[in-house]
Amino acid sequence: MDNRTPPPIQRKNSKAPKRPGRGGSSRGEFMQDISEGSAAATPVPSSTPSTPPFSPEQTERFEVYRRSALSKPNIKKLVSSILGYSCSNNISIVVAGFAKIFVGEIVEKALDVKREWGSEGPISPDHLREAFRRYKQEKKLSFHGYQRRLLLH
Question: Which domains, from first to last, does the chain contain?
Answer without folding.
Answer: 69-151 (1.10.20.10)
